[in-house]
Amino acid sequence: MSQIDKLPPLREVIATHGLRAKKELGQNFLFDLNLTARIARVGGSLEGVRVIEVGPGPGGLTRALLAEGAHEVIAIERDPRALPALAEIAEAYPGRLTVIAGDAMEMDYALLADGPTRIIANLPYNIGTQLLTGWLTMEPWPPFFESLTLMFQREVAERIVARPGDDANGRLGVLAGWRTEARIAFNVGRQAFVPPPNVTSAVVHLMPKPVEPDLPVKHVEQVTKAAFGQRRKMVRQSLKSLGVPVEGLLKAAGLEGDERAEELPIEAFLAMARALPGLR
Question: Is 270 annotated as a binding residue?
């Protein structure tokens, strides 16, 4: 599928609008419309779905989302140079593309949702992890979105889907594993981007799952921050930064204390988070 609509090829769009990717904006553009269509389909049919896209750039993924049947795409773009190209897409898909010129880090995403909503994006590398953490720690939970389909550097993707005992396991893996079913859908080689990044990328799909409503996410974040703050140390030592009796935390989680954070099951972190307020 080299052409999905009547708009010009992406290389032509970028040349016309002078859209040289800016490193300071974390930009790496996707030209392959076969690939963008594949990303759009990761979470299933888009018929009747509203999609929020962050960092559309020249609109390669935007066009795929619309061509795949998204009811509406809300595209958040910080780079004013990309707005004319996105306006051309909006004209080709009347009433189905809304472009918000602004900073993705400052958006209230829940306010953009109206009906079934998914977030699908080739995230700017420099803010991708921050955005994901924000979505994973939203309250209330389950959140407004049905799913997240996001592009990351492969190293970050491995951290998101990491399990106990994995070298990549850390705070991000605990949050994602606690609140979602996360999987790597497929890898994307360097050559798919302009300019090519230094590393392989990967598309990650996350589906929210129910969690106990009376466990504040801030307590889980505090416990994981302390536990992973000194990765090479045993949790008995690293948990001391919480300023509470560590033995109480260990007892709540059924731990000996000589374990390291990356070895612990998610339930151990949750157990310590439940016990945390009572130990203060």
Answer: no
pLDDT tens digits, 36-86:
999 999 999 999 999 999 999 999 999 999 999 999 999 999 999 999 999
For the chain, domain boundaries: 10-208, 217-279
Contact criterion met (CB below 8 Å) for 270 and 252? no
Q: Binding site annotation covers 134?
A: no
The answer on whether 214 is annotated among ligand-binding residues is no
CATH class of 10-208: alpha beta
122 annotated ligand binder: yes
Tokens of 143: 């959140």
CB atoms closer than 10 angstroms to residue 21: 16
Which CATH superfamily groups domain 217-279?
A: rRNA adenine dimethylase, C-terminal domain (1.10.8.100)
How far is Cα 7 from Cα 151, in angstroms, rounded to an integer?
A: 24
Residue 60 tokens read as 């390669």
Question: Does 254 appear as a known binding residue?
Answer: no
> Annotated binding residue at 32?
no
pTM of this prediction exceeds 0.85: yes
Return d(Cα 205, Cα 254) in angstroms, integer: 32
